[in-house]
């Protein structure tokens, strides 16, 4: 397996809570270079509070070998032409190390946060990816784009706005997904899939991979080099006392995800419809503090990898070997000793 990381090292998604430490844009070059030296395969950045393309430009400029990418950037609020330009620029700046990870966001955010009209996400994303790729083709070949679809009709470029060909024009596109339909879209038009953290190894193997194969068959594509990149739910710490704090946080995240209708499919696959229904009612009543206690230890360990630094890597390898190509993992690095521990963990994960 290849090993990816978010910035800063050891970052854990806080869900609805504020992060323990705010992200500092000024440290991106230093953090990226540190991640490269430690030995990560890829540095990824997600779109939450900052523009991921701007952050990845800082990381690209500071590094020379490590892959960089968005995991993920939100597609629909940006025109395919805008996304195509951002990715083309980063691919050129990084010397061919960029991966474009795209996600849809949920309907409420598209309509109420971004101000766009919602249409079914799967067909929309399929068209979006094809439009981006057609724009790239036109730029690389000094040609006019020629794309026509339900959402986008793109057939114009002029020399002033044409960035022209680049040395490494192939930019992998990875799609975020939970539901089988989006997995099919990924298999049909993209180079990789980024399952939501709520997707268990069993769900990836038995639901997502078969959907990818169905999508690839539609367009007669090979998926030999297709990437499956998981960002697992992980609770880890140097010792048992620290681990209990991480378990508390992960239990709350599992409860929140189970209450979210967009992720229901992943819980249904494990026969947990009633749990999802109960938690949805609690969330609607804003009874947040009651939700974590609904997650039993069995459910917790089904959806999360839990262990101290001494055993977390074997747990990850046992769960994901042969199922995913990339795993996102890190621990905080505050001392040289922390860096040595993380370097050894990465080496062991790579052997999977």
Task: Describe what this molecule looks like in 3D.
- The protein has 352 residues and is α/β, with parallel strands linked by helices.
- The protein has two domains: 2-238 and 311-350, TIM Barrel; 239-308, no CATH class.
- It contains 13 helices and 13 strands.
- The strands form three sheets. Strands 1-2-3-5-8-9-10-13 form an eight-stranded parallel β-barrel, surrounded by five helices.
- α1 crosses α2 (52-62).
- The chain is globular, with a radius of gyration of 20 Å.
- The protein starts with a strand and ends with a helix.
A few lines on this structure:
This protein has 352 residues and is of the alpha/beta class. The chain folds into two domains: 2-238 and 311-350, Luciferase-like domain (TIM Barrel), CATH 3.20.20.30; 239-308, no CATH class.
What is the third-level CATH name, the topology of the largest domain?
TIM Barrel
The CATH class name of the largest domain reads Alpha Beta
Order of strands, main sheet, comes to: 1-2-3-5-8-9-10-13
Percent of sequence in beta strands: 5-15%
- Named at the architecture level, the CATH assignment of the largest domain is Alpha-Beta Barrel
Largest sheet: 8 strands, parallel, barrel
What's the total number of strands?
Answer: 13
Q: What is the averaged pLDDT score?
A: 95
Radius of gyration over all CA atoms, rounded: 20 Å
The CATH homologous superfamily of the largest domain: Luciferase-like domain
Please report the number of helical segments: 13
What spatial form do the alpha-carbon principal axes imply? Answer: globular
Distance between the termini: 6 Å
**Helix-strand pattern, N to C?**
EHEHEEHEHHEEEHEHEEHHHHEHEH
Q: Tell me the count of domains.
A: 2
Helix content: 40-55%
Question: Which structural class matches the secondary elements?
Answer: alpha/beta
Low-confidence stretches: none
């Amino acid at each position: 397996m290849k090993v990816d990381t978010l910035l800063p090292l050891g970052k854990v998604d806080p869900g609805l809570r504020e992060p323990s430490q705010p992200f500092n844009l000024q440290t991106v070059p230093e953090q990226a270079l540190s991640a490269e030296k430690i030995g990560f395969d890829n540095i990824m950045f997600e779109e939450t509070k900052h523009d991921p393309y701007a952050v990845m430009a800082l990381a690209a400029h500071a590094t020379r070998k490590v892959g960089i990418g968005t995991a993920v950037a939100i597609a629909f609020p940006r025109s395919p032409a805008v996304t195509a330009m951002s990715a083309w620029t980063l691919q050129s700046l990084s010397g061919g190390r960029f991966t474009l990870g795209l996600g849809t966001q949920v309907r409420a955010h598209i309509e109420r946060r971004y101000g766009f009209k919602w249409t079914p996400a799967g067909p929309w994303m399929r068209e979006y990816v094809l439009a981006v790729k057609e724009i790239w083709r036109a730029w690389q070949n000094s040609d006019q784009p020629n794309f026509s679809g339900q959402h986008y009709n793109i057939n114009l470029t002029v020399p002033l706005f044409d960035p022209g060909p680049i040395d490494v024009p192939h930019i992998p596109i990875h799609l975020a997904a939970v539901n089988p339909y989006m997995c099919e879209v990924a298999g049909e038009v993209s180079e990789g899939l980024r399952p939501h953290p709520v997707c268990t190894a069993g769900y990836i193997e038995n639901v997502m991979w078969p959907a990818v194969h169905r999508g690839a068959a539609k367009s007669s594509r090979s998926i030999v080099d297709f990437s499956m990149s998981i960002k697992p739910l992980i609770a880890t710490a140097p010792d048992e006392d620290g681990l209990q704090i991480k378990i508390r946080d992960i239990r709350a995240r599992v409860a929140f995800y189970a209450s979210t209708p967009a992720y229901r499919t992943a819980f249904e696959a494990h026969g947990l419809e009633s749990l999802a229904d109960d938690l949805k009612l609690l969330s609607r009543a804003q009874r947040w503090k009651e939700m974590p206690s609904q997650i039993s230890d069995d459910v917790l360990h089904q959806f999360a990898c839990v262990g101290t630094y001494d055993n977390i890597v074997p747990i990850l390898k046992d769960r994901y070997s042969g199922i995913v190509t990339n795993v996102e993992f890190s621990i905080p690095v505050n001392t040289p000793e922390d860096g040595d521990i993380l370097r050894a963990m990465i080496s062991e994960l790579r052997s999977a």
